[in-house]
Amino acid sequence: MSKMKSVAMAVVLSLTGTAAHADGSAANGAQKIKTFGCIACHGRDGISKLPEAPNLAGQVQTYLTSALRAYRAGGRKNEMMNTVAEKLTDSDIADLAAYYASIAVSVTPPPKP
Ligand code: HEC
Is the pLDDT of residue 101 over 70? Predict the structure, then answer.
């Protein structure tokens, strides 16, 4: 197989892998936020407990998944998140993303100028 072909194949396989784990379980995620300590910084409610940490409540699930994968792979750099994410399996990531995405949020935009 040529190098180009094997690279293309690896991309296809990794995309297939993503799809297989895309669902995740919010119920499992509810346990894993404690196991992995996410709650210390992002809260059980997905609202930041630390000035540097973002809110995760109701965030788009595919975005959460790709952010966690990027921290794990090291392409996205943040000392805290790289350390946390390096321990996560694909199914941990799917469950954690499902959990934070499942938190209902409501928003009130500012009044129109
Ligand atoms: C020690 C505090 C800390 C812990 C523990 C922690 N995080 Fe974070 N998290 C942060 C900080 C700080 C950022 C912002 C990093 C940056 O600037 O990229 C962040 C960013 C993120 C983002 C990216 C959000 C975005 O809007 O792009 C996700 C997703 C995330 N964390 C999920 C988790 C999950 C899931 C866990 C548990 C496995 C976890 N974090 C544990 C501090 C923490």
Answer: yes
